[in-house]
Amino acid sequence: LSGPSWLQPPGTGAAQSPRKAPRRPGPGVCGPAHWGYVLGGRGRGPDEYEKRYSGAFPPQLRAQMRDLARGMFVFGYDNYMAHAFPQDELNPIHCRGRGPDRGDPSNLNINDVLGNYSLTLVDALDTLAIMGNSSEFQKAVKLVINTVSFDKDSTVQVFEATIRVLGSLLSAHRIITDSKQPFGDMTIKDYDNELLYMAHDLAVRLLPAFENTKTGIPYPRVNLKTGVPPDTNNETCTAGAGSLLVEFGILSRLLGDSTFEWVARRAVKALWNLRSNDTGLLGNVVNIQTGHWVGKQSGLGAGLDSFYEYLLKSYILFGEKEDLEMFNAAYQSIQNYLRRGREACNEGEGDPPLYVNVNMFSGQLMNTWIDSLQAFFPGLQVLIGDVEDAICLHAFYYAIWKRYGALPERYNWQLQAPDVLFYPLRPELVESTYLLYQATKNPFYLHVGMDILQSLEKYTKVKCGYATLHHVIDKSTEDRMESFFLSETCKYLYLLFDEDNPVHKSGTRYMFTTEGHIVSVDEHLRELPWKEFFSEEGGQDQGGKSVHRPKPHELKVINSSSNCNRVPDERRYFLPLKSVYMRQIDQMVGLI
Ligand code: DMJ
Fold first, then answer.
1. Cα separations (Å) of 584 from 252, 285, 392, 529, 581?
2. 3-state helix, strand, coil in the chain (%, to 5)
3. Which residues contact 137 (CB under 8 A, 6 or more apart)?
4. What InterPro entries is this protein classified in (predicted)?
């Protein structure tokens, strides 16, 4: 085989040998010695990359960028409210609203997400709070309480309704009822847990997806009024079925009703038990009745992304060790079979590392593209302390962004060209940029954020909002602004530049759901208000001793907003990557 070493199966030659284990942080991981190493400031002379990116980012420019990010959100939100509410989404070019496509039930791209429940308003709630806009937050919450209903004849995807709607309702509920009110006064007069009841109502309507399934893996879609449609599909993607535990778990623990967490956890375990015995990998599409893998592709992007994310985040939130154990095993398999290229990302011989798509049973390469969803992975690596690898993977995606001013949905690394050309304003690269900035405090990431902000302004801003890029090369647009643009893309951009935001101030511990909704990590969510059901030993280890569930302060994982923002005062403004590495990547995506 010729071409980059990413084509080679793992283990062929020293440069391609699988990484033995993730580089786990030891105590004091965020201290100066560690960052001195990761940031690579070891006697290199300045060059064009260093000149461009490593200069300190002036505070005024930072404030300007924060205001630009806020302005971006406000422009999208105000236009949605003016032209689209109470419909689900804004068509930003024609200044109209958009709801489910009733004329074409097979239009899943629309109908999976739009449930006729004012999706964009609901999804945007906690961004309003994070930006400190208490009057609009209070107004929006009241609108949701008074106008949104889930008693609709809409067939939606269980996953989308969970992460965008259920997650947002729970996040806003927690913000309203937080006794500390860190974002300003976000309380609602006479609030009587209405958002929590709405979340419960929605979750109950999603429950039929978990019934009559032989494996416990849920049906992908339900009708909110009538349950699982008779002609429904038995095939689901792994991420869709296996990333419900964060929202369902929070709901269960707030209500003291184990049902929701139980069904979500059963689904995760059923999927986990179907992993390959040889590689430990999962596929991307499975039949919920037979447990047969219909899609055998294993990768980090579409179909699997948030499955991995929620194994770790469930552990962070609920402290159940089995979630961390599954995550650790999955991470090891990813390192063994998906990661190609040289072992150390920032130095050594061979191609820079890349995570490819392989057959779950054989580990053989299945194609030569990566997708833009995979750009979330460096953010997840930050959470477990594999920061150096995160820095390198993020740089690869940033190089693609620099080339097109956006991320194509799929990029073919062999052809050095996009395979799928649209960019629907996705947040993943910004999310990783924000988390890497919190971990390193390196101004490189502020430069990256500025680049992203400026290209969004230049290529996607239209008359009434921000539009999906139809074609990242000719920059033509499509009349759609997905709800995650306000709930995630704008939020992460704002947080990147808003130095003093309560989300990343010490003393607070927030985690982001896969839709970017904040949830505080606290003791309360680790207390089970019901008899333990999820560990096979019924909450007891083999010897009958009670299982130790770690307290939040005992967590070894890095919470971006707790440990790593305590960067020493003598901050080291070096490039996080060696220039030679960046040049290599720029070459590999055809930039130079
Ligand atoms: C969002 O709905 C979530 O981030 C999800 O995890 C993946 N897809 C979109 C954004 O791209």
1. 49, 35, 11, 53, 5
2. 45, 10, 45
3. 125, 128, 129, 172, 175, 186
4. 6hp_glycosidase-like_sf (IPR012341), EDEM1/2/3 (IPR044674), Glyco_hydro_47 (IPR001382), Seven-hairpin_glycosidases (IPR036026)
Amino acid 9: pLDDT: 86
Beta bridge partners of 285: 237, 295
By CB atoms closer than 10 A (0-12, 13-18, 19+), residue 80 is buried
Q: What is the pLDDT of residues 402-441, one digit of tens each?
A: 999 999 999 999 999 999 999 999 999 999 999 999 998 8
**Which of 300, 377, 426, 512, when mutated, tests ligand 1's pocket best, judged by the most ligand atoms within 8 Å of its CB?**
426
Q: Any alpha helices (H) in 385-531, and if so which ranges? A: 387-404, 428-440, 444-460, 484, 490-497
Question: Ligand 1 in contact with 514 (CB < 6 A)?
Answer: yes
Q: Which of 114, 120, 123, 163 to mutate to test the pocket of ligand 1 (most atoms within 8 A of CB)?
A: 163
Atom of ligand 1 nearest to the CA of 431: 4
Burial zone of 198 (CB within 10 Å; 0-12 exposed, 13-18 middle, 19+ buried): buried
Binding-site members are 514
pLDDT per residue as tens digits for the range 5-30:
888 888 765 445 667 655 544 333 33
Q: Tell me which residues are annotated as active site.
A: 160, 305, 409, 428
Q: Which atom of ligand 1 is nearest to the CA of 426?
A: 11
pLDDT in tens, 333-344: 999 999 999 888
Annotated binding site for Ca(2+): 514
Q: Which of 204, 199, 203, 205 is nearest to 222 (CA)?
A: 205
pLDDT reading at 44 higher than 70: no
Structure tokens at 581: 């590495």
* DSSP element (H, E) containing 298: strand 297-298
Reported as a pLDDT band with limits 50, 70 and 90, residue 52 is confident
**Ligand 1 geometric centre to CA of 515 (Å):** 6
**pTM listed for this prediction:** 0.91
- Answer whether 515 contacts ligand 1 (Cβ < 6 A): yes
CA 514 to ligand 1: nearest atom: 6
Q: Is 36 exposed, middle or buried (0-12, 13-18, 19+ CB in 10 A)?
A: middle
Is residue 484 in contact with ligand 1, taking CB distance under 6 Å? yes
Measured in Å, residue 310 CA sits from the centre of ligand 1 at 13
